[in-house]
Amino acid sequence: MAVPLGTVDIPPPAPPALGPSQAGQVDGQGAPKIHLYTGPTPNGHKVSIHLEELRAAYPELARTKLAYDVSAIDISTNAQKHPSFLAINPNGRIPAIVDDNFDAHNVFETASILLWLSENYDPEFKFTFKDAKLRSKALSWIFFAHGGVGPMQGQAHVFFRYAPIKIPFAIKRYVQEVERLYSVLEDGLALGAGDWLVGDKFSIADINVYPWVRSSYWAGVDIRQFPKLAAWVDRIAARPAVQAGLSVPSAGRGPVAQEEKDKAIADAHEWIAKADAELKALKK
Ligand SMILES: N[C@@H](CCC(=O)N[C@@H](CS)C(=O)NCC(=O)O)C(=O)O
Fold first, then answer.
1. I want to staple 216 with a disulfide (CB 3.0 to 4.6 A). Which of 100, 223, 228, 281 is the partner?
2. What residues does each domain of the chain span?
3. What pLDDT score does 28 carry?
4. Topology match between the domains 1-127 and 132-273
5. Does residue 114 have a pLDDT over 60?
6. Which sign, positive or negative, has the C-alpha torsion 211, 213, 219, 222?
7. With a 6 A CB cut-off, is 110 part of the ligand 1 pocket?
8. Beta carbons of 113 and 107 less than 8 angstroms apart
9. 122 phi and psi angles, rounded to 5 deg
10. Which atom of ligand 1 lies closest to the CA of 44?
11. Where are the alpha helices (DSSP H) in the chain?
12. For ligand 1, is residue 178 a contact (CB within 6 Å)?
C-alpha cells in the first residue's frame, strides 16, 4: 500500500552529543585536535580505521596533531539533521571531522576526509602514493567505491534488511549490483601487483572500501564467490589498527557465525528468485 507523502510523522531531531567522548584518549596524549563525529557504520569505520592506522604509523603525531576524540551520533534519532551537526556537515550524514590543527576546519564525505588526513598527516606516504600514476590509480578506486559500492550496498541494506515493505525487484537490483561491483574489485585485485588494490601496500584505496565489503553478508552477498576479495578482507581484518578503528565509537558485536551469514545469503537469493518469477509473469 502506498504511504501518502505528507502524512508521515517525522520526529523532531534530537540534539547530537557534540561533546568529546572516549576514543583516542590514551596516556601521554595531548588535548584532542581532531574531533570525529561518527557512528558504528561502514562509512563511519572508514574514517576511524584511517585515523587509527595513521596513529599507529606515526606515534609522535598520535600524541599531538592526531590526538582525537569521538562524538557518537545516534542516526536513529536523526541527530545528524540537527542544526549544530549541519554546521559541520551540511549533508546531515555521518561521519564528519573538525580539525583544530587547521582552525576548526570541518570536512565531510568519507573519501574527502581520507584525502584530507592523507595530505596533512601522512608525510611519508605510508597509506597513499607519491608516484602520480599510483596516486591516480588510488583515486580511481576511491571514486569507484565512493560513487558505486557505498551507495549501492547502502540501498541493498535498505531494501533487503530495513524496508517495511519488501520489493523483490529492488532487492534483486541492488544485491546483484553489489555482486557486480565486488567482481570489479576481485578483478582489480587479480590485476594488482600484490595483495592490495593499488601498488604493493595497504592504502586509502583499500581503507575506503573495506568496511563495506566486510559487511557483505548484511547485503545478502556471498563473499566466497570472490576468493581474492575474501582473502583481502581477512588480511585487512588481521591489522590491529583496523580492529581499533572498528571499535569506534563502540565495540561491535564481534565475529558473525557462518550460519547467520548463510541464512542471509539464502534469504537474498529467495527474494531474487521471487523477482525473477514476477518479471517472467509480467512478460507473459
Ligand atoms: N557519501 C557519504 C555517505 C554518508 C552516509 O550515508 N552516512 C550514513 C551512515 S553510513 C548516514 O549518516 N545515514 C543517516 C542519514 O541518511 O540521515 C559519505 O561517504 O560520507
1. 223
2. 1-127, 132-273
3. 59
4. no
5. yes
6. negative
7. yes
8. yes
9. -130, 65
10. 10
11. 42-57, 59-63, 83-86, 110-121, 132-144, 150-157, 168-191, 204-207, 210-213, 227-237, 240-246, 258-283
12. no
CA distance 283 to 93: 40
- pLDDT tens per residue, range 52-108: 999 999 999 999 999 999 999 999 999 999 999 999 999 999 999 999 999 999 999
- Residue from 41, 43, 85 whose mutation best tests the ligand 1 pocket (most atoms within 8 A of CB): 43
Backbone φ and ψ for 97, nearest 5 degrees, come out as -130, 155
Handedness of CA 123, 103, 13, 68 (dihedral sign): positive
pLDDT tens for residues 152-208? 999 999 999 999 999 999 999 999 999 999 999 999 999 876 799 999 999 999 999
Residue pointed to by grid coordinates 558485536 = 253
**pTM for the whole thing?**
0.91
Fold of 132-273: Glutathione S-transferase Yfyf (Class Pi); Chain A, domain 2 (1.20.1050)
Q: How far is the CA of 154 from the centre of ligand 1 (A)?
A: 9
Instruction: Please determine, for residue 37, whether its predicted confidence score (pLDDT) is greater than 60.
Output: yes
End-to-end CA distance of the chain: 25
CA 130 to mean position of chain CA atoms: 25
Q: How far is the CA of 94 from the centre of ligand 1 (A)?
A: 5
Q: From atom 18 of ligand 1, which residue's Cα is the shortest distance away?
A: 109
Looking at ligand 1, which atom is closest to the CA of residue 80? 17
Architecture category of domain 1-127 in CATH: 3-Layer(aba) Sandwich (3.40)
Round to whole Å and give the CA distance between 52 and 245.
6
Amino acid, single-letter form, for residue 9 = D
Ligand 1 contact, 93 CB (< 6 A): yes
Residue 158 burial class via C-beta count within 10 angstroms: exposed 0-12, middle 13-18, buried 19 and up: middle
